[in-house]
Amino acid sequence: MSRIIIFTGKGGVGKTSVVAAHALRAARGGMNTLLVSADMAHNLGDVFEIRTHGERTIAEDRLTLLELDPGKIMREDYPDLNRSIVEMISSSARSDAVGSDFMFPGFEDLFMLLGIRDLYKSGAYDLILVDCAPSGETLSLLKLPELLEWYMEKFFPVGKFMTRVLAPVSGALYKVKLPSSEAMDQVSVMHRNLVELQALLKDPENASVRLVTLPEKMVNEETKRTYMYLNLYGYHVDRVFINRTLPPQPDNPFMENWREIQRQYIEEMERVFTYIPITKIPWYPEEIKGIASLERLAAELPENEELFAVRPQRAQGAPETDVDADGTLYGGPEVYEATKEGYLLKVSVPGAESAEVKRCGQDLEIRVGNQLRIIPLPSTLCRAQIVKTEVKEGVLQAAFSLGQEAP
């Protein structure tokens, strides 16, 4: 069975170099490895100094590179949807200027995810390493399946019905061609595939996220926020890489001063990631480019047994509405612990000082910083009332009372 490891970090931290070194080590260790770029600014070919041409490219034995093309995925795997989008836009624009490569803004992330899912399902690789875009875009990518699932459950049945009703008259009255039934069916297939992928990516046995950072103030702060938001959405971070650390240079006061500044930020990261392994990578005098430089970088990584080991995550899930012997109700990456009054919801948000929690119908809205997560409540709590919320030691706790109905 394949395993997926996703790499992210602030732009310019050397993320692509670190994931490429992983790929080299994995391949030479006997694993059939696929290195995927999910960043539209692809640069795998630059790092390995080979041409990729947007297709699967053999870098060396057991190592394949692929720079994902979301437009190609849409055209080849969802042709009815692609055709309907082009026809609808062309008809509304009263022209045929919209080509077959047209894609709604933001759909790139959607088809990137579907491409990763198909690669995993193929079973052709032991290890799939994903070089993601900078952390903000990665968060948008990883929260998309859950967000789309929520929209699909709430609005898709109504939208599908309205499309079927209005399709016969939309062309005559409004000169707009609505999506065909085949296109709507492919949307349903996309939804099922994304739900499956979401379960896969949140399972620490099959997938994890690795953060690449630098010993600098702004980068550290973004790394901590990224870690907090990944936990909010239920993703498992299993290792952190601090890149470009300076070696001792006692004869150079200027560089020693920078090294002391780095030391302070490294110690801060070690306090934040107490239970997560941290690997420090030195700052090389030349850029990481080509196999020789990747080999040098790969030598700084832990041994393969540790580097590719599956690190356990504390138990946080079982099928929704399952209740174990001590009364704990599970519902995905969040935990509901039984109390005398009802249940206590716990969601990991390391580093957060506060959070806003409110009911919205049968959903729970959690806002931490600038991120909003909507959690469908288990049926047991659909009529319960929130009586208290607090963030304690990096864990959001929301107490539900079953004795009163929610307003």
Question: How would you sum up this structure, described in words?
Answer:
With 407 residues, this protein is an alpha/beta fold. The protein has 2 domains: 3-307, Rossmann fold (3-Layer(aba) Sandwich), CATH 3.40.50.300; 329-401, Immunoglobulin-like (Sandwich). The protein has 11 helices and 16 strands. The strands form 3 sheets. Strands 3-4-2-5-1-6-7-8 form an 8-stranded mixed beta sheet, sandwiched between helices. Strand 3 and strand 4 (63-67) form a beta hairpin. The model is unreliable at 88-95, 158-176 and 315-332 (pLDDT under 50).
Q: Which percent range fits the helix content?
A: 40-55%
The strand count comes to 16
Q: What is the SS-derived class?
A: alpha/beta
Order of helices and strands: EHEHEEHHHEHHEHEHEHHEEEEEEEE
CATH topology of the largest domain: Rossmann fold
- How large is the radius of gyration? 24 Å
* The CATH class of the largest domain: Alpha Beta
Oligomer kind: single chain
Give the neighbour order of strands across the main sheet.
3-4-2-5-1-6-7-8
Note the total helix count: 11
Percent strand: 15-25%
Architecture of the largest domain, according to CATH? Answer: 3-Layer(aba) Sandwich
The named CATH superfamily of the largest domain: P-loop containing nucleotide triphosphate hydrolases
Quote the average pLDDT.
80
Biggest beta sheet attributes: 8 strands, mixed
The coarse silhouette is globular
Kindly, what is the distance between the CA atoms of the first and last residues, rounded to a whole number of angstroms?
47 Å
**Number of spatially distinct domains:** 2
Q: Detail the poorly predicted runs.
A: 88-95, 158-176, 315-332
